[in-house]
Specification:
Blueprint (H helix, E strand, L loop, with lengths): L20 E3 L1 H4 L43 E10 L5 E11 L3 E5 L12 E5 L2 E5 L8 E4 L4 E3 L13 E5 L2 E5 L2 E2 L2 E3 L2 E4 L4 E4 L12 E5 L2 E8 L5 E8 L4 E3 L13 E5 L2 E5 L2 E2 L8 E2 L3 E4 L4 E4 L12 E5 L2 E5 L14 E4 L4 E4 L7 E2 L2 E4 L1
Parallel strand pairs: 1-12
Antiparallel strand pairs: 2-3, 2-29, 2-30, 3-4, 5-6, 6-7, 7-8, 9-10, 10-13, 11-12, 13-14, 15-16, 16-17, 17-18, 19-20, 20-23, 21-22, 23-24, 25-26, 26-27, 27-28
Length: 363
């Protein structure tokens, strides 16, 4: 049985709320990359360290857009469950294709073991950033191997941010870096990172759900600096943020996952704090965002309650994998599930082992 760990900012039960700090976009303006190691447990960060520009190396070149590639989803890493009941960072790479299922890749080089990294696709390459244990590294997967990129500066070594293709670039929002939550927007153009400074931003947070719909990045929820779940919906058009006021909405939650599918955004799971329970509790709810409002779906069957899973859409389906269950809803959220717009279907067969915080992106 895979039990979800608490937020990466702590372990065990909810942390002492005095240990976390927040940092706004304004405080980041003009600063270089941060190169701090992520450590386990709770605590506040002692300060920012400007990192020197990296030397050498070339950015991975995008593949020819005209090449015919079967739709696939890449999975990397996560926090795997061990036989002794503990957890260990993973560094394996897997490929999902429909209807073939999972195949493990064995590239000649790959990022170090980590969990909570972010991945998105640009020009046929899957770009991976951050994660626990990384030092603000950026990697690219070209279908055969991983190549570490060498940008002149980078975001902090973030965990649990939103990372999606928006226009011609990848956009990253929010996340956590040992003791600090962020409300920053960063843009990756295939070679370098640029720090965006919109005048209004959502509050600093980790573990929001997000996906791109109709040319805008949509985010929902997350966990705030006081370890409380958030329930707001924001839209970023590449220049400015707008808070939406939907008539209906999922309850505040962290660690839900989202993917764009069939002209809408699908959201699943997450951890809430029901008033009657008083602590984090994983849910198995399925919600859909149509650009104006949230609608809860009620499929005949659903994946087990879970949070900090991974989800991506490719080949006419949404694929959900991994995660853990927190609170009273203990379950075993292993295996792979797909969503066809109406139904969830569980898939069996060989695949990645059980894990929290895996990273997935369609390619």
């Amino acid at each position: 049985m895979l039990r979800a760990l608490d937020s990466p900012r702590c372990s065990g039960e909810r942390c002492d709320r005095a240990t976390s700090t927040r940092r706004t976009s304004a405080q980041w303006t003009g600063l270089g990359a941060v190169s701090l190691l992520l450590l386990a447990g709770c605590g506040s960060r002692t300060g920012l360290e400007a990192a020197l520009p990296d030397d050498g190396g070339d950015a991975a070149q995008p593949q020819d857009a005209g090449q015919s590639q079967p739709p696939s989803i890449l999975l990397f890493g996560g926090l795997g469950a061990m036989e002794d009941g503990g957890y260990a960072d993973e560094d394996d790479t897997w490929i999902w294709t429909a209807p073939g299922g999972w195949t493990q890749a064995h590239p000649p080089q790959s990022p170090s073991a980590r969990f909570g990294a972010m991945a998105a696709t640009l020009g046929g390459n899957v770009v991976l950033f951050g994660g626990d244990g990384s030092t603000a590294e950026t990697w690219a997967w070209n279908g055969a191997t991983w190549t570490q990129q060498q940008p002149s500066w980078s975001p902090p070594p973030l965990v649990s941010s939103v990372f999606s293709l928006l226009g011609r670039d990848l956009v990253l929002f929010g996340g956590y870096d040992y003791g600090t939550l962020y409300d920053d927007v960063w843009r990756w153009d295939g070679t370098n990172w640029t720090h965006e400074t919109p005048s209004v931003t959502p509050s600093p947070r980790e573990a929001p759900a997000g996906a791109v719909l109709d040319g805008s990045l949509v985010i929902f929820g997350g966990e705030d600096v006081d370890f409380e779940p958030l329930g707001d919906t924001w839209v970023y058009d590449g220049t400015s943020w707008t808070q939406m006021q939907p008539a209906h909405s999922p309850s505040p939650r962290r660690g839900a996952v989202a993917a764009a599918y069939d002209g809408k955004i699908l959201l699943f799971g997450g951890d809430t704090i029901p008033p009657s329970y008083g602590d984090w509790l994983s849910v198995d709810e399925t919600w859909v965002w149509d650009g104006k409002d949230w609608t809860q779906e009620h499929p005949a069957q659903s994946p087990d309650p879970r949070s900090f899973a991974a989800m991506a859409a490719a080949g006419g389906q949404v694929v959900l994998f991994g995660g853990g269950s927190f609170g009273g809803n203990y379950a075993d959220p292993v295996g792979t599930w797909t969503w066809d717009g109406t139904l969830w279907t569980q898939h069996t067969g060989p695949g990645p082992g059980s894990r929290n915080y895996p990273t997935m992106a369609a390619r």
